[in-house]
Amino acid sequence: MTSFHTIHLITSPDYLLHDTGGPDHPEQPSRLTAINKRLENGPLSKNLIKVDPVPATRESILLVHNEDYLLRFEDACLSGREYFGHTDNRICYDTWQIAFLAAGAGMTGVDIIESEEGRLVFAAVRPPGHHAEQGLPLGFCFFNNVAATVRYWQNRYGRKRILVFDFDAHHGNGIQEIFDEDPDVMYISIHEHPTFSFPGTGWDYEAGIGAGEGFTLNVPLPPGAGDELVIQAISDQITPAVNRFSPECIVIAAGFDAHGQDDMSGLDWSTLVYGKIGTAVANWADRFTQGRVLSILEGGYVPDALSASVETYLGGLAIKV
Amino acid sequence: MFVKNYMTTEPVSIRPDVLILDARKILQEKEFRHLPVTDASGVLQGMVTDRDIRSALPSSVASPEEREKIMARVKETPVSEIMSENLSTLGPDSTLDDALMLLLRSNVGAVPVIDNNGVLEGIFSIRDLMGAYGNLFGLGEKGSFLITVRAGDGPDVIARVAGLLADQGISVTRIVREEAPDGGVYLHLRVNTFNLRAVHSTFASAGFDVVSPLVV
Fold first, then answer.
1. How confident is the model at residue B215 (pLDDT cuts 50, 70, 90)?
2. With helix as H, strand as E and coil as C, how does chain B read?
3. How far apart are the CA of A199 and the nearest CA of chain B, in angstroms?
4. Which residue range forms the structural domain that includes residue B43?
5. Of A253, A271, A272, A273, which is closest to residue A261 (Cα–Cα)?
6. Disulfide engineering: A4 pairs with which of A42, A173, A185, A318, CB 3.0-4.6 Å?
7. Is residue B124 domain-shared with residue B163, that is, in the same domain?
8. A224/B212 CB distance under 8 A
9. Residues of A with CB below 8 A from B216's CB?
10. Are residues B126 and B154 in the same domain?
């Protein structure tokens, strides 16, 4: 009979308080409700341990964003503005606090992993983070949750070489910008080609800058690309790059909007391929990090497809072989 | 849309009496391929290129005696003897379209830009042209992507599409109309939003087909 390793699920009903202004906005609270409902009622339910996130401190956010940016973001939220930077980035009064709670989930996960309470962590958070740059909100993102978690892991626990793998349909320009010159953080992203897809970055020649050259790998896929190209890219390009880098820790920017039913990208992945991605990640973790992986939710905008893909990914990640 | 915003200003230039080998040194050190030649008051006299210099130098298959003989002459020859003098130039008000047509027609890689008195103001290369059009089309503008719709005929199609997107609060920064070789008329738009869903539903409800670039 199939059995699974334990997964710590970090999430909070407070994440629903980030109000994006009504049903027309793709980044909806119902995304998280659907994920939680599906996981609670599905085959992984017995293997889940639910954990409340601890909010990130201001100091830990300042490791990836600048002071001026924080002041502008705080002012926009608390003064009742409807958006921050671009009309896409809808905010409400609570967004300011919830953003700290979203960034803190990854850090809470790091503490769980480092205290050896658990090896697999999934942080189901919103707002998402991978488009947010040091001084720029973009694509529904305000704090870069993944980048802040990476810096926390390095600073709090002295870990050095950290792999970030981002399989959201959109390029994580923010993660790339923050670690562009850093040879200790390898950023690997697979996404829809930047000509046809937001945010218009992530060309295959973007490979890092200065000392960080060679520590960014972008794998753009043509619009319409299905499972075959993902699996091929993981085996031909991504796994060899992970092996060369030999990470001490693995953080996954887990976006599920490449799903064929998700209308926020032109990619055409199946639910099942997320299980294969999960298994590939588990194999890297077995090889390099004693099975430890921290995944943080990014995109995925059709609740049914999102929740099914999350469950399949976690199943692939946690399955006992 | 004007050359002066995209040209290289204050380009390195030389006087006509500079020797060929000194000009070659400048081109090699600066990694340029074009060197404008001006008089003391900055008025353009000609242009010398790495190709002009190569053809002045002895052939690599020439005998040692021949090479030596030619090199002795080259060493004493100023650039005025090998530079091109009947130059195509661009002026202070030239547009990128002027530059494109000129570069297409003249088979050169770069064109000097001069003021009304013939004084050298800048140099404009094919590379500058590509950068300029890339900039105009918004290539690499973070937060945007390209979407193509089948437009159909009618003089108001651009206005309609722009209006549709404006009504939905969707920011569009470029609209280019193309009459394609397949006979279709397309609008290529650079939209500045993450909300692909809203873009698609806006076009669908107005009866415009979004053209998928390709499906594997």
1. very low
2. CEHHHCCEECCCCECCCCEHHHHHHHHHHHCCCEEEEECCCCEEEEEEEHHHHHHHCCCCCCCHHHHHHHHHHHCCCEHHHCCECCCCCECCCCEHHHHHHHHHHHCCCEEEEECCCCEEEEEEEHHHHHHHHHHHCCCCCCCCEEEEEECCCCCCHHHHHHHHHHHCCCCEEEEEEEECCCCCEEEEEEECCCCHHHHHHHHHHCCCEEECCCCC
3. 4
4. 3-135
5. A271
6. A318
7. no
8. yes
9. 222, 224-226, 229
10. no
Size of interface A-B (CB pairs under 8 A): 77
Whether B115 and B47 map to the same domain: the answer is yes
- Indicate whether A40 belongs to any domain: yes
Q: Give contacts of A223 with chain B, Cβ < 8 Å.
A: 212-215
Out of B93, B108, B135, a domain closes at B135
Query: Are A264 and B197 within 8 A, CB to CB?
Result: yes
Q: Is B210 on the interface with A (CB under 8 A)?
A: no
In whole angstroms, give the CA distance from residue A143 to residue B115: 51
What single DSSP character describes residue A115?
Answer: T
Of A65, A130, A131, A191, the active-site residue reads A131
Residue A2 located in a structural domain: no
Number of domains present in the structure of chain A: 1
- Confidence class for position B154, pLDDT limits 50, 70, 90: confident
What average pLDDT does the segment B95-114 reach? 94
Total count of domains within chain B? 2
Asked if A137 and A89 count as a contact pair (C-beta separation under 8 A), the reply is: yes
Q: What are B36-61's pLDDT values in tens digits?
A: 999 999 999 999 999 999 999 988 89
Q: Out of A103-117, B6-20, B135-149, which region has the weakest mean confidence (pLDDT)?
A: B135-149
Our CA dihedral for B130, A188, A101, A58, rounded to 10 degrees, sits at -70
Residue in chain B closest to A202 (alpha carbons) equals B140
At A198, is the pLDDT very low, low, confident or very high (cuts 50, 70, 90)? very high
Whether B207 is in a domain gets the answer yes
Instruction: Please check whether residues B130 and B166 belong to one and the same domain.
Output: no
Give yes or no: residues B108 and B176 share one domain: no
pLDDT in tens, A56-80: 999 999 999 999 999 999 999 999 9
Give me the residues of B, 13-42, that contact A with CB < 8 A.
Answer: none
A25 counts as catalytic: no
Mutate to test the interface with B, among A31, A87, A130, A218 (most CBs of B within 10 A): A87
Can you tell me the mean pLDDT for A126-149?
98
Q: What integer pLDDT is reported at residue B140 of this predicted model?
A: 79
Phi/psi-derived region of residue A224, left when phi > 0, alpha when psi is between -120 and 50, beta in every other case: left
> Is the model's pLDDT at A232 over the cut of 80?
yes
**Rounded to a whole number, what is the distance in Å from the CA of B8 to chain A's nearest CA?**
26
- What is this model's ipTM? 0.84
Looking at the DSSP bridge assignments, the partners of residue A252 are A165, A295
- Looking at residue B216, what is its pLDDT? 39
List, for residues A252-262, the tens digit of each pLDDT value: 999 999 999 99
pLDDT value for A321: 81
